[in-house]
């Protein structure tokens, strides 16, 4: 698949009425003085003339940005144990870490078909990521992968992670290897509220020791309506993360631990950009927490699987699939306030990045290659490689 990244930026302005004309008395005329002549020249907008709504957006949202965040993605088949295998789901690859001369990746693995909700059998899988555990694989070249074994399994019956452990992310910190991941406690129904767990090891191959308690949970400020197992029936929706906290991604940033995550709301509704999906961040002074949700949450208007990376003293983000700002690449100088740097046609889902790359070489150097997953059918997914081709301006 190919995807082209386009130019764009910043804030959305809602207009209540179409603009027919702009008189000399219109206060927006003076706003033009904010922008240098080079911006008008880049955008082919005559300075001093009348502005269409499109031209106003181009000025306000910074469409005169250069091509630094511009390129295209493609996916390719892998070799070894990551070739497609019917009957097995491998998905949600973590970032890739390089230890000595070996690459390691962690991912969700499950066996068996998906049946959905309402079967009457609580043991049947309801999603492809149901009844998963975290496995890991190694590679010498990033193309041929060997499945090494289990990294983090499900907990004992009655524990907060007894049903599913999935969507891992890895971080190396002071000779420690840290995994964060989603968890589900049985039974798995429409209204289940997942949590985020953490496990730590001295070796990329384990053993990984779980923390006894989850490090992040959904907000407890929504209220279901009735007893039917229906996630859309609510008396009160609550916060953006009142139902689920998904796709945890841990970054050591500004001498603190930033735990980025996707929030899903009770009674999720549709927006003009599709699903109501946003990201948040919880911050800790110590690796094991406590993780305190930022007062600025939510920090994005869109997004699905998390993909973030340090860049130039800030945080870059690949935001795909859901919401009015879906399929954009964004950047924040402080890890919280993100601005759009480019629009993309397609981005690799659940993108796992090579953490050994020099992130600061250019904005997209960390996206040069990585791992993603692809659906073969509703039941089976497998892991593929993605690569980025940069397109330079003339």
Detailed description of the structure:
The chain has 394 residues and is mostly beta strands. It has helices at 28-31, 37-43, 53-60; strands at 3-7, 71-76, 79-80, 88-91, 97-99, 102-111, 133-139, 144-152, 164-173, 176-184, 195-201, 209-210, 223-224, 234-236, 244-253, 256-264, 270-271, 274-275, 277-284, 292-293, 308-311, 314-319, 328-332, 339-344, 352-353, 369-375, 381-390. The chain has a 9-stranded antiparallel β-sheet, with no helix packed on it. Strands 3, 4, 5, 6, 7 and 8 form a 6-stranded mixed β-sheet that branches. Strands 9-10-11-12 form a 4-stranded antiparallel β-sheet, with no helix packed on it. The longest helix has 8 residues, at 53-60. The protein is globular, with a radius of gyration of 22 Å. Mean pLDDT is 90; it is low at 1-30.
Question: What is the structure about, briefly put?
Answer:
The chain has 394 residues and is mainly β. The chain has helices spanning 28-31, 37-43, 53-60, and strands at 3-7, 71-76, 79-80, 88-91, 97-99, 102-111, 133-139, 144-152, 164-173, 176-184, 195-201, 209-210, 223-224, 234-236, 244-253, 256-264, 270-271, 274-275, 277-284, 292-293, 308-311, 314-319, 328-332, 339-344, 352-353, 369-375, 381-390.
Write the layout of secondary structure elements.
Layout: E1 3-7, H1 28-31, H2 37-43, H3 53-60, E2 71-76, E3 79-80, E4 88-91, E5 97-99, E6 102-111, E7 133-139, E8 144-152, E9 164-173, E10 176-184, E11 195-201, E12 209-210, E13 223-224, E14 234-236, E15 244-253, E16 256-264, E17 270-271, E18 274-275, E19 277-284, E20 292-293, E21 308-311, E22 314-319, E23 328-332, E24 339-344, E25 352-353, E26 369-375, E27 381-390
Parallel strand pairs: 3-8
Antiparallel strand pairs: 1-2, 1-24, 2-27, 4-6, 5-6, 6-7, 7-8, 9-10, 10-11, 11-12, 13-14, 15-16, 16-19, 17-18, 19-20, 21-22, 22-23, 23-24, 25-26, 26-27
């Amino acid at each position: 698949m190919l995807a082209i990244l386009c130019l764009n930026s910043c804030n959305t302005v809602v207009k209540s009425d179409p603009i027919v004309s702009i008189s000399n008395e219109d206060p927006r005329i003076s706003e033009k003085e904010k922008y240098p002549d080079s911006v008008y020249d880049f955008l082919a907008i005559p300075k001093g003339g009348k502005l269409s709504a499109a031209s106003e957006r181009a000025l306000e949202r910074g469409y005169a940005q250069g091509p630094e965040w511009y390129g295209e993605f493609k996916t390719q088949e892998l070799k070894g144990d990551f070739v497609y295998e019917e009957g097995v789901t491998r998905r949600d690859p973590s970032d890739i870490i390089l230890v000595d001369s070996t690459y390691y990746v962690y991912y969700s693995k499950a066996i068996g078909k998906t049946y959905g909700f309402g079967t009457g059998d609580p043991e049947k899988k309801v999603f492809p990521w149901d009844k998963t555990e975290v496995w890991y694989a190694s590679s010498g070249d990033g193309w041929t992968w060997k499945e090494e074994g289990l990294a983090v399994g499900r907990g004992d019956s009655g524990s907060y992670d007894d049903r599913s452990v999935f969507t891992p992310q890895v971080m190396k910190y002071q000779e420690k290897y840290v995994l964060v991941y989603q968890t589900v406690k049985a039974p798995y129904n429409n209204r289940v509220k997942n949590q985020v767990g953490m496990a730590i090891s001295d070796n990329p191959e384990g053993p990984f020791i779980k923390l006894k308690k989850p490090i992040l949970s959904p907000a407890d400020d929504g209220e279901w309506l009735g007893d039917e197992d229906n996630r859309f029936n609510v008396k009160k929706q609550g916060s953006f993360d009142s139902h689920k906290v998904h796709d945890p991604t841990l970054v050591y940033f500004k001498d603190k631990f930033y735990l980025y995550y996707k929030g899903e709301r009770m009674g999720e509704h549709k927006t003009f950009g599709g699903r109501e999906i946003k990201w948040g961040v919880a911050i800790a002074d110590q690796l094991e927490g406590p993780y305190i949700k930022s007062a600025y949450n939510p920090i994005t208007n869109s997004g699905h699987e998390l993909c973030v990376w340090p860049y130039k003293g800030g945080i870059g983000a690949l935001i795909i699939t859901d919401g009015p700002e879906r399929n954009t690449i964004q950047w924040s100088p402080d890890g919280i306030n993100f601005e759009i740097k480019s629009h993309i046609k397609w981005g690799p889902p659940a993108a796992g990045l090579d953490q050994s790359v020099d992130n600061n070489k250019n904005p997209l150097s960390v996206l040069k290659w990585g791992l993603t997953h692809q659906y073969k059918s509703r039941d089976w997914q497998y892991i593929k490689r993605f690569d980025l081709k940069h397109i330079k301006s003339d």
